[in-house]
């Protein structure tokens, strides 16, 4: 052990005292920090001691000069003051994930010659970017700049970067920047590893020169719709790239075969652009790829056999391109890590690839809108993790076997099979679904299949079902009361069938649509693949099933009688479509109790009397039609009911008032004429109703001919209008505007 003499101890104490004296906070930076216009939410910052070097988020050098301000996620509010410029030794400034607002001071960087890290991401800062810099641009010491997720605007000019020789990360995403992406990035900053320009308003072409960034690993510039042109040829020289993300822009041209030089790529996202041509034949050299997302382009040809050499693939999405070929020739069995496969909206032929049954990690499969044939085979049960299966708009057969097989997939939540199984019978055997069949199923889509028969009782076993689409079939019989036993059902489409009888009172007691009896909430899990519902020429994308509007569609059937007053129980309902039936009597005023209602279609029925004045309380109503009934009296005034187009009320000669041209003062003059019209209307309706529905009920061959005629009307629009949060609207892709996604209410 060392001999600690008194002299040695005295020397040590003197040295420590000198160090402490030099380490105390300098008064100038202390005053600067105290003058910052910050407020904090609880807990407040601990900035009360004399020595500011001991404050929360503050670090100093040996001379007591502040070098670090590190205050992420502290609930800071206010603005960033020019007094920060007094901290000339500052090397790290991190104010990310707060609620700071306003512009940054002019010449923000002018006094900082040692700044290495600037992180202001996820605030509400704003202003023209050009005011941030002196004529010399960023300081030569800068290494990391993250000003993403703010409201900055202006142009990022190359001169800002001319001294940023040691820059390694630049993230300016999620702002409002315009103009070209700087062209001299890799000349000034050859060591940069991350460049993120995504979610801005950049225009022009992606500049050449990226190949000079010999250390570049991540390049993102997606969601800049006005970016155009082809990928720069020298991007394929940046061989350290692990991620290229350029989605939702206007890029075009082929995917060059030189892309296989980027052997370290793990993520390639080029979706929603205008890329064309074939995939490189040797794309399998990108063996480290984990995410290959090329959907919504114009890519053609067959899929290269080498694609299955990308054995690390987790997500493969080629949806809505122009690929073709016999899909069964691909051997998917090598893709053991694949969890999501989306090849929908192409022109593949053949049967469901048997090799997919070997991909044991698969959780989601979409092969919708191709030309696949055959049946769903029992081998699908090998996919123990499969939650999402969408095979709609193909040529599949044997629905009975499909239901029997799929009901045994214990993880399945989404089964979407519309526009298949044409003219088959709806499986009616109650035993087809066992006690534990479809035990986790949340959505079932069988629309547009022209299925015959009645609504089967095995559906009543699906206690976790939330969405059921059976529209555009040939289902007969009545609506069963057991629907009210499905505790989570909030979206029911039975439209465009041959269903008769009355609107059952039991349907007014759907637990998920009755506020006081709503079932316990289901876990808000993100769908493995989004659901698309076409609406008025627009594709609506739902990433969560519960973001779909609570709705009941029973339009275009042969229902009759009075609408039960219990309809007012459905307090959670957003869409109610009773159109084109033979409902009679008064419009029940209890509909006005559905205060969340956004679309109400009562057109083409036999409703009589006046429009209930209480409908004026439906403040969210954005679409209404009561056309072609036998209504009379004045349209309730002073509300949004006058804002609808006159066509919403046409075909009711007894109605008057805005927006109709007929004034109520003049309606009595036409009373006699109206009487004759009413008689002819009733007779005409009876004749029309039994002239159409009667033969369809009693004559099998007429039914077949009628629905073959409907088959030719796939472009017929079911207009819907509803307000729903977290709904992403995607314009119909030009190349698919006619072929893909008609305006039916089918979802895919």
TrEMBL record:
List the membrane topology term(s): Single-pass type I membrane protein
Q: Which keywords does this Swiss-Prot/TrEMBL entry list? A: Cell membrane, Glycoprotein, Leucine-rich repeat, Membrane, Receptor, Repeat, Signal, Transmembrane, Transmembrane helix
Residues of the signal sequence? 1-24
Question: What are the annotated GO cellular component locations?
Answer: plasma membrane
Keyword Transmembrane helix among UniProt keywords: yes
As for subcellular location, the record says: Cell membrane
Q: Which residues cross the membrane?
A: 675-698
Keyword Membrane listed: yes
Instruction: Name the family the entry cites.
Output: Belongs to the RLP family.
Q: What is this protein called?
A: Leucine-rich repeat-containing N-terminal plant-type domain-containing protein
Q: Which organism is it from?
A: Carya illinoinensis
